[in-house]
Amino acid sequence: MTAALTVTGLSVRHRRGWALRDCSLSVPAGRVAALVGPNGAGKTTLLHTVTGLLTPHGGTVTVAGDVAFMAQDKPLYDTFTIAETLTFGRRLNPRWDGAYAAGRLAELGIEPERKIKELSGGQQAQVALTLALARRPGLLVLDEPLANLDPLARHDVMRALMGEVAERGTTVLISSHVVADLHDTCDWLVVLNGGRVQVSGDIDDLLAGHLMLSGPDELRPPAGAQVIEESRTGRQVRLLVRGAQVLDPRWNVRQADLDELVLAYLRSPEASALPRLSEVGA
Amino acid sequence: MIWLTWRQHRAQILVTGGLLAALGLLLLGSAVEARLYVAGHAPPGCPGRAAACWDLALALSERYDAVYTLFGWMPLMAPALVGVFWGAPLLGREYERGTQKLAWTQAVSVRRWMLVKLGVLGGLVSAGGLLLSAMVALWRPVLQREDWFGNIGVFNMVGVAPAAWWLYAFAMGVAGGALFRRTLPAMALVVAGIALTMPGLFRLSEHYAEPVRTVQSGSTVLNADDARVVGWAWIAPSGTELPSPPTGVCAHRPDTGRSGRNQEAYERCLFGKGYRYAIYHHPATRFWRFQWTEAAILAVGSVAFAGTAVRRTLRRRV
Fold it and tell me: Which residue of B7, B98, B318 is in closest CB contact with A73?
């Protein structure tokens, strides 16, 4: 398993304390990784460090191949036409697939002579995405790509992205504070909370490794289980546990879903689910 | 990168080019008209040192009063405009619109992005300054003005001075954009910076060379064309220089109105009693020495500003 992105011991200090503290994570090649966390968790800071916009105070970022970045507000030059925006991409990137870029925008019905500022938010997102994809990057980094888009545009952008990823095998890192956006599309999860990496791993493995238990409140958690979150309602207790063998038949057992898993970790900042070093592939 | 530089800054390039062309036409027009005027009105033997020629030059100045007013503002305004419209937005606008996150994440490195932009635009700005200098140098003699050195305003518009000033203002604007990350404060920095640097350098220019000391016994007016006078003093008959005009030797009554009669009488009296007058000045032959000194100082400033901008840009903060 080769890593497309490896981050070790990354620390970034802002004026008011640490934005990132000793973050380590790895995304294997070909994966679509979701970077989730509450607002202010350090997601954008992490992405800016990965794309080289920010110099970290400590730690290293290693990327296999080129990185293409679509920043949060999808910045483009307002006064440029679509054609000029594509020329921008061609002039600033030696590996530029001009035929693909022109073809993709033609398919979307975005005429080359129109100006960026005349486009809708969804169309601008498509142009920004085209600019990133036509670079044929090894790693595509998207910061909140769906923010400020209507549901239809969200769907279009996500579908376009997934189509490309399936075809080219590009590694993708997408940040979002809405887990639901990334449910169907991502197969790797990174949870960032308060500037620290809490969870990093394959989504299927994570789901398989976590169980949601419910039962009468006199029950003790199963032996060897790491309790991530515990909640009591009346005489009932609900646990989200990791790495447990549940033998007691009084427990009602089911697999946790991704939302529950992410929320449970975010509510328990001291808990973590990180791969052992050998799994990182670094 | 050169395409991008042109695309993003073509408005400044075209407007500056257009203004220079318009100024060129204005100067050309006034020069042609002045030639005709001189041909029709010049007494024989002019241009020269005769009093009649002086009258002609005076008439020409009055004729071109409006052009001169424009001309008087130009040494200050032109660099300020260059800094405001070429320098300040270079980084300020990228930060304001967040487009640096697009520009600086392409395959072209930030260092190259900065160096090409600074190089191409700095080169164009310097060329514009030199073009202005050349036009002024062609225009002034037609109006029978040969004061290149003594008049600080003219001095800053000929030779290499305009190019140095324009480049300096441009670099200051870029540095302002890197520091403030906004266009407007960077523009304000340029205006304040030029307004402070210009009088500052004018004061400093007295020390670019040791002034020449000319001692006269008969007139307090220096008989050297286009010199920069930096100081003067009366010399007592004993040979010591006096810090202030001597008192109690000759009667010194204040003049009224615009007349200088009492002052002249006072000076005549002093010369009659063996006093002499020392004038410290830089002769016009020092023109190029002063030009290159000023250009070197401004070039060092430009490099410092550009260096600040590059350093702040490379030490990445979003």
Answer: B98
